[in-house]
Amino acid sequence: MYSKIKGDIKMSIEKITKTVYRDTETNLQYQFEPVEGTVELREIERTVDIGDEQERREDTEIGFELKYLTQDTNPSPPDENTEDNNLFLVHYHPQFWVENDICPKKALGYIYTGNANEYYKDVAEQVKKDYWVFPVDAYIHSGVHLTLADGFRGRLPQGHEQFDVSHVGAILVKKKEFGAGDVEFENSKNEARTKTESLLEAWNQYLSGDVYCLVCETLDKDKRQIDYDIISGFYGFDYAKECLKMEI
Description:
With 248 residues, the protein is α+β, with helices and mostly antiparallel strands. It has 2 domains: 18-73 and 212-246, no CATH class; 87-208, no CATH class. The chain is 22% helix and 41% strand. The chain is built from 5 helices and 15 strands. The protein has helices at 105-113, 121-130, 160-164, 189-208, 237-246, and strands at residues 2-6, 9-13, 21-22, 29-30, 40-50, 57-71, 87-93, 96-98, 131-140, 144-148, 165-174, 176-178, 184-186, 211-219, 225-235. The strands form 5 sheets. Strands 8-7-11-9-10 form a 5-stranded antiparallel beta sheet, with helices on both faces. Strands 5-6-14-15 form a 4-stranded antiparallel beta sheet. A hairpin with a 3-residue loop joins strand 9 and strand 10. Helix 1 packs across helix 2 (121-130). The longest helix has 20 residues, at 189-208. The protein is elongated, with a radius of gyration of 26 Å. 20% of the residues are buried.
């Protein structure tokens, strides 16, 4: 950035570089970097305004709709925006820390050990009264991968289970919830486990970068971009690809 005086006007000039992605075979340009195998291009009829301000009218012309997935480079954690605390993860390892005041580290410590001298027994007992608690293991080695307790047993290279797997996490599922119309219902332990497995899958997708944005660009008859829409936060490639057909 630099400043420049033009007459009596001081201008502040900033150089902006725009990145454009181009398919070298088709010469098609993209606003965002597309994920291979997700590009869909179809011909559409689009409404355009023609004429001057006094005699403006609508007409139609041929255009194109370009849809694809792009990587979500700044996704939110799966349960970050769940304010009701019906289903959430906690994990208290220095390299993977996810906290929740409902189940602080010392309450989870009591649930794991039963040691009331070092941990919060009263808080832990209240947690167990209100929630199904499913212990979670984390394999922390060039990344983080989660599973229910003992899920890594016999699946890792020698020594990794002993040194790279932490046992300081859990997923909590509220035993009683309020559904549609504020009707209270109970989660059985089996239902809670199913919800736990779904949340674990979403967390692993988040941790591995398997999260996508849906993109829909509107192009003119010469396949030049007119505008675009983008929606972020779709977990899992297969799910995101299905949503691309319906959600945008």
